[in-house]
Amino acid sequence: MLKKSKIKNDEVEALSNALNYDFPKYTTQIINLVNRNAQGTRPNVVGQMSNLIQEFDKNSLPEWIQWYSSKYPNAVNEATEKIYAKFLEMKKAIDLIDREMIEAWVKDLVYTKTYCGLKFQNAIIAFLAEKAGKSYRLANVEEEAKGIDGFIGEKPV
């Protein structure tokens, strides 16, 4: 019987002869955040990768690059341009952030959004339970982790 073990990303890359890109600390996290806003690697830009890799019938990274590039010749450039344009926008916004703005953001989250969100959540669930003629309760921590806000009768909401 095989012992359960984990393989690290760098080990997978080494086994697959992947290109090695060396990124400075935090830069990939920032690029991922920017890309989430830019949506530069969405299927409408770069293709549906899970389907494309299934279509690909060769076995090497250089063959994949050639095959992909022939199907989507401008995708890498289009994705790069979308992400870079959003990066420039976000870079300007970053320059506006100071300690006071961060403190205001924390207060807004902890005070306003928490109070309003949870108090209104309780009010809405109570209102709906009364309309249904049922009891209600708010979710506990484990239930919240599953995306449940509360229960009306036995039904999660």
Write the layout of secondary structure elements.
Blueprint: H1 9-15, H2 27-38, H3 43-46, H4 49-55, H5 61-71, H6 75-96, H7 99-132, E1 136-138, H8 141-145, E2 150-152, E3 155-156
Helix pairs in contact: 2-6
Which structural traits does this protein have?
157 residues; 3-stranded antiparallel beta sheet; 65% helix
Brief write-up:
Helix content is 65%, strand content 5%.
- State the helix count: 8
**Could you give the order of the helices and strands?**
HHHHHHHEHEE
Label the structural class.
mainly alpha
Instruction: Give the averaged pLDDT, no decimals.
Output: 92
Strand content: 5-15%
Q: Which regions contain 5 or more consecutive residues with pLDDT less than 50?
A: none
Shape estimate: extended
Let me know the largest β-sheet: 3 strands, antiparallel
Rg over CA atoms: 24 Å
Count of DSSP strands: 3
Strand order of the largest sheet: 1-2-3
Termini distance? Answer: 43 Å
Proportion of residues in helical segments: 55-70%
